[in-house]
From TrEMBL:
The active site is at residue 241. Catalyzes the N-acylation of UDP-3-O-acylglucosamine using 3-hydroxyacyl-ACP as the acyl donor. Is involved in the biosynthesis of lipid A, a phosphorylated glycolipid that anchors the lipopolysaccharide to the outer membrane of the cell. Belongs to the transferase hexapeptide repeat family. LpxD subfamily. This is UDP-3-O-acylglucosamine N-acyltransferase. HAMAP family: LpxD. It comes from the Bacteria. Residues 21-89 form the UDP-3-O-[3-hydroxymyristoyl] glucosamine N-acyltransferase non-repeat region domain. Its EC number is 2.3.1.191. It is an enzyme of class 2 (transferase). Pathway: Bacterial outer membrane biogenesis; LPS lipid A biosynthesis. GO terms for molecular function: UDP-3-O-[(3R)-3-hydroxyacyl]-glucosamine N-acyltransferase activity. SUPFAM superfamilies: Trimeric LpxA-like enzymes. Keywords: Acyltransferase, Lipid A biosynthesis, Lipid biosynthesis, Lipid metabolism, Repeat, Transferase.
Amino acid sequence: MKFTAQQIAEILEGDVVGNLDTEVSKLSKIEEGVTGSLTFLANPKYTPHIYTTKASITIVNKTFIPENSLDTTLIKVDDAYAAFSKLLEYYNLVKLNKTGIEQPSFISDSAKLGEDVYIGAFSYIGENVKIGDNVKIFPNVYLGDNVSIDDNTVVFAGSKIYSECIIGKYCVINSGAIIGADGFGFTPNENGEYSKVPQTGNVILEDFVDIGAATTIDRATLGSTIIRRGVKLDNQIQIAHNVEIGRNTVIAAQTGIAGSTKIGENCQIGGQVGIVGHIIIGNNVKIQAQSGIGRNVKDDEVLQGSPALSYGDYNKSYVHFKNLPKIVKDINDIEKKINGNS
C-alpha cells in the first residue's frame, strides 16, 4: 500500500517541504533509509543522517532548518516522534483492517457476530459466543462457549480463550496467549495423592488491555480473575487464579503471580519477578527485575531483591555484600590482635 507525502501530511496535520506526490510504501530507520521508505528525525544526534538518507520522505520537527541540501521530502510537524508514533498506529490499523469469514472455520449457529468482523481460517467459535463490531479473530484461534469479546478487539493467531471469559473493548491478545485455562488447584488426600479442585470461574479483561504472546491468565476457582482497564502485560507471563491487577499497571516478561494476589493501579513490575499468593500490592508500586515479593506492599514502595527490600536499603546492603570478604578479613585481624594481647 502506497501513501503520498500529501496524504501523510494530512494525517499528521503537517507541512510538506518538497514534492507533494512523493510516494512511500514502507518504513525505515533514518540511517537505513531506502527509496520508497518513510523515516523520521527526532533525536538531534541522528541529524547527520538526514543529509545521506535514501528515504523518500522524512518527518521532522518544525524547528528543523537544513544546513545542507537534501534528497528527501520533508514533512514538518510539532513533534516528529509523536507524529511517527501516530503514523505507526494508523499503519497498523490499515494493515489489520480485514473483514469477512475465511474458510475453513467453525462458527456455532448460536454465536452472534457484530459488523465488520474478521474470522480467520481454522478458527473455532463456540456456542453462544458474542463478538462485537470490528473485532479481528486471526487464524487458528479458539473461542470457547459463552465467550464475549467487545468492539475493536484483536485476537492474534493461535490464541485460546476458554469458556465464559469476558474480553473488553480495544484489547489486543497476541499469538499463543491462553485466557481462562484452569487455575493450579489441587488438594492432597489421605493417600498423599492430589485431587483436582474444580475451577468454575472465569477471566475478565476490561477495556484497552494488551496481553503479550504466550502469556497465560488462569480462570478463577470461584468468581473472576480480573485484569483492569489499561493493563499491559508482556510476553510469557503467568497470572494465577483469582488474581486482580489494577488499572494501567504494566508487567514485563516472565513474571509469575500466584493465586488470589491483588495488585494496585499504576504499578510497574520488571521482568522475572515472582510474587507469592494471597498478598496485596498497593498503588504506584515499582518492583525491579528478578525480585521476589513475599509480603504485602504499601502504596508507592520501590522494591528490589529476593526477598525484596526497599530499593535504597537493597543498594546499601549490596555495597556491603560486595565488600564482605574484606569485612570478614578485617574482623579476623581484629580478633587475632585482641587474642594476642589477652
